[in-house]
Amino acid sequence: MQDGRTGGTARAFELLEPLVQAATVRVHAAPDGYAPHGTGPTWGSGFFIAPGWVLTCAHVVGEGGAAVRLVGRELGITFSSGADGTTGTVTGRVECVLPERLEERRPARRALWDLPDLALVRVLAPITHACVRLTDRGRPRLDEVAYFGCTEDLGAPEITGRTTRLRGTAAAGAALRLGDDDEIEPGMSGGPVVDLARGEVVGVVKARRSNGGGGLAVSVVQLRTLPLAATGQVGLYRRVMQAHDLYHYDQHLSDRGSRSTWTDVHDELPARELPHEGRRRLTAAERTTLCGLLAELPPPRSSEDVRALVEAARGEEPDPGLPAPLSWRDGLGMLHDPPGGAGEAAAMLRYATDVSVADHREPPSPGADEELWDWVRATAERLWRPLRRELGERHERGLAQRDRRRRARADRHPHGHTRPSGALPQGPSVLLEAWAHGWEDVYDWRVSVLYGPAHPGRLTPVDSGVRATRAGLAEALRVPLAEAFRRCDTHDAAALLEVAVAPELFGLPVDTWTVAGRTPLGVQRPVVFRYPAGTGGAIPADDEADHRRADRWTRVQAGPLADERADCDRGRPRTPAPEWLDALPDNTVPVHCRAADAEPTRGSLYGVRDAGYGVAVTRRPPDDPAADCAPFHRGLREELTEAARGAPLPVRLQALRARAHGADPDAYWADGMALVWEDPARALPEDEPLQGDL
Hints:
Blueprint: H1 7-23, E1 24-29, E2 42-50, E3 53-56, H2 58-61, E4 74-80, E5 87-98, E6 118-123, E7 144-151, E8 158-170, E9 175-178, E10 192-195, E11 200-208, E12 215-219, H3 236-253, H4 262-268, H5 284-295, H6 303-314, H7 328-333, H8 344-356, H9 368-379, H10 385-412, E13 429-436, E14 442-450, E15 459-469, H11 473-488, E16 497-500, H12 521-524, E17 527-530, H13 543-558, E18 562-565, E19 568-569, E20 572-573, H14 578-583, E21 588-591, H15 601-610, E22 615-619, H16 630-643, H17 649-661, E23 673-677
Helix pairs in contact: 3-5, 5-9, 6-8, 8-9, 8-10
């Protein structure tokens, strides 16, 4: 312990040290088959976050240089295997690293690895071990902490801990700054950082300063950025966190062991709150039980479902700057310190009540939702009577609403279909906006969640930036888009990406960008272009124009569809006259086969917009200027005929891209094709473009 620490800090360290040491591991080369007890030099540290799962830094598992692969690499894990201090060694395999592209963009030797710099390691043998308790808070408090890792102070590897204070955050909260009270030694990278006031792990030791004590840690909240499946949120993060919460729940309920659990120690930590506040917060045992009960339920349909329940329980919109909440426990962590002095316990019990009557994607385990509600009702008995009455009414109202939704779905889809085949999901979508920066070839951008028909015009920004080059947009937007998709994707479908840009940017190859893995965006999800709202792109608003747009949209959605070449006449460029566009039948889909940023296509796209067409097609022409556009027009006509109506077009275009990506020659004609999709039910907010630095 450091001299000068408060008595509370010393006591907290004394209580937590054995728990953290029991779960912290030494990372090294995989055991040799001929010398199973030889482990070699220490690469770094790690710690168990769930049975069979070790969290560490990516640079720790990358020991050995650029030639070493990361994902799939086998390594050695030496861990505490008993209360008497004995250790065991087991082989682990790297399951995932963050950020994903580390394999392609390995830092130079001795360079700082890109954030989040995390790795999840799966243990390849059944073993008994301890696990740490992870925070559910999105933002840590700047309080006193302890960091742990493997050192060799006395000539042999040993797990030790030291105390310091969080001095702030960096990289939009992804990194935590550790104070310079003591020096982080080689081998401690990958070890846990523990909030001593709350008894929970908030970070992973990443780096030490080269010219003194202190360093950086990675926030464990960055685990939420683990890659998701393209069509939903049942993935590695949810599985690991479910196992984490059930581990601590089982430990709390078990009466077999004599050692203190994390829940036991939480009750013994020095109090940091006024005596009367205890009634306003859940106890450690209640928090552990609630997390365990939530872990037994099916996962939420989407991140936005979690955020909506948090907002209803908290009384205000949760912090939009946090990584997307992917599990019910993440929502619980967004309810700390509610506004206006409202009780934290009350907010969490309201949230748990709403979760117990949520319309889950799949049926819960028998009795799981009733067990959660029974616990809420029993826990509320120690709180004030008005809250108990409120929760009971909330539960009855939620049950009635859930039953009405289920009956309505059964009436609409008697054979079990939840939405028409090929139709877009009606929930939140991801909105990408980009604006030209004056006359320069650089762009300001914003990524947001657009809530769709249920909340017309409502938007929550995810991230924004300025002065990105056209060639650099894909890389600048990769992380913000990934975060937005986490918020909007559901188990049923990948969310729609709406790209609102000036028509001359309809040639942006957004469908070819990669955000996660190697699969292009246009193959993973529907991608459409929109005319921007606000300055420079708004359609003139008058009653006649509104009626014309509404009529044409309705007619195209009903079908049948008719195509019309707008910028081309048998391969020759054509500038369509406004009168000609106005006179086309309402079920027409104007088609463009030439470059969107050059005439006549640029002018044609503006003309199509002014004439009220909500659905149009454009494409990036082939590199060969002599290439014939006839196959494109022929293939598109067949596609429109088969689609019969407008609603399936975004999903059908996604399927065409998937066929071309899978090397189907019959789909090559659709290369570079884009869909303009001005759905009046998905109104864009009328605001100004970004101006200057953020």
